[in-house]
Amino acid sequence: MIVLGIILVLIAAAIGLLGVWAASQASGPALTTTILNSSFNVSPLMLFVGGMVAMVLLWLGIRLLGFGTRRTVSKRRERKELLRTQAEQEAALLETQRKLGTTQQARQEEVARLEAAREEERTREAQLRIEADRRRTEGREDEVRRLAAEREAGRESRP
User: Fold this and answer.
1) Quick one: what percent of the chain has pLDDT higher than 70?
2) Domains of the chain, residue spans
3) Three-class DSSP labels, the chain
4) Is the predicted pLDDT of residue 6 greater than 80, yes or no?
């Protein structure tokens, strides 16, 4: 758009300069001018129409320059906005990843703590069974019942 606008402005300027030059060479109602070894007869009406065409081309060229410039500025502004938005999203993503890393670490610590508690409970139950078996062999049934009750109470108190 900008290039086309510049071309039209240059064509309009050339036509305008040509018209001024032809008018300065005029002597009478019909103007005869020579351009690039070619002779042209130009009437005042043709000169007027040529001026109008030159002005329309000039106006059109300036409008195209304006449209092209606005379009370029708009694209540049949009690109800057997209880059800013991308930077904000990357920062938010990094923050979320940092928080998730902390959350995962806390979750892993909680799982490890629960595993340790379960293992401790299994060890305690095994010790109670061993103690119950030992007392059974010694003939102390009332103590065996008490140990079984303790074991059941331990299971019920677990979450």
Assistant:
1) 87
2) 2-157
3) CHHHHHHHHHHHHHHHHHHHHHHHCCCCCCEEEEECCEEEEECHHHHHHHHHHHHHHHHHHHHHHHHHHHHHHHHHHHHHHHHHHHHHHHHHHHHHHHHHHHHHHHHHHHHHHHHHHHHHHHHHHHHHHHHHHHHHHHCCHHHHHHHHHHHHHHHHHCC
4) yes
